[in-house]
Specification:
mainly alpha
């Protein structure tokens, strides 16, 4: 795994921790779930883009 891929994984983990510390760990609230989904999709798309370039 490249250092850029590792960086995106670390960034995803950091974002996930931030969302959880902001009280967004509950999936009962649709707005919170949507915000998490959008944030995760952005990071996953960046990760996949990078993987395609390697």
């Amino acid at each position: 795994m490249s250092s850029i891929s590792t960086q995106y994984i670390r960034e995803f983990n950091r974002l996930n921790a931030m969302l959880e510390s902001a009280g967004m760990r509950s999936f009962d609230d649709q707005e919170q779930q949507t915000a998490r989904d959008v944030a995760a999709k952005v990071l996953i798309d960046k990760f996949l883009e990078n993987a395609e370039r390697e």
